[in-house]
Design brief:
This protein is mostly helical and 113 residues long. It starts with a helix and ends with a helix. Belongs to the learning-associated protein family.
Length: 113
């Protein structure tokens, strides 16, 4: 495409903005670091310590899961009709598809008799 004056001007303005906002962001980051250095309540943790804590927590959680595990019966669905034992369709089946399946099932029952 051709380089119009408008696109050249916009590119130029974006470059100027980048410089200005880059400087602002740098100043803001330096200020935050200075405040963090002065503030003693913030504790910086080493990555290895974080990994160790995470693995300990996952081990503890896995033990709790085993204790609180309950067996839940999954609804038994017919693969052809997609209905469960109560005659209801899954949530993800579109109403149009439900109607189509019901028509198909009725036609099959009618032909069998």
């Amino acid at each position: 495409m051709a380089k119009s004056l408008r696109s050249k001007f916009k590119r130029k303005m974006r470059a100027i903005k980048r410089v200005r906002y880059g400087q602002k962001e740098l100043d803001r980051l330096k200020k935050m670091l200075a405040e963090a250095a002065n503030n003693e309540s913030i504790e910086l943790a080493k990555p290895k310590e974080i990994d160790m804590k995470a693995t300990e927590e996952t081990k503890a959680n896995s033990d709790k899961k085993d204790e609180n595990f309950m067996e839940i019966e999954k609804p038994k669905r017919n693969a052809k009709t997609l209905m469960d034992q109560h005659g209801t369709f899954p949530v993800w089946v579109h109403p149009r598809q439900r109607r189509k399946l019901l028509k198909r099932n009725k036609a099959k029952k009618k032909n069998i008799k």
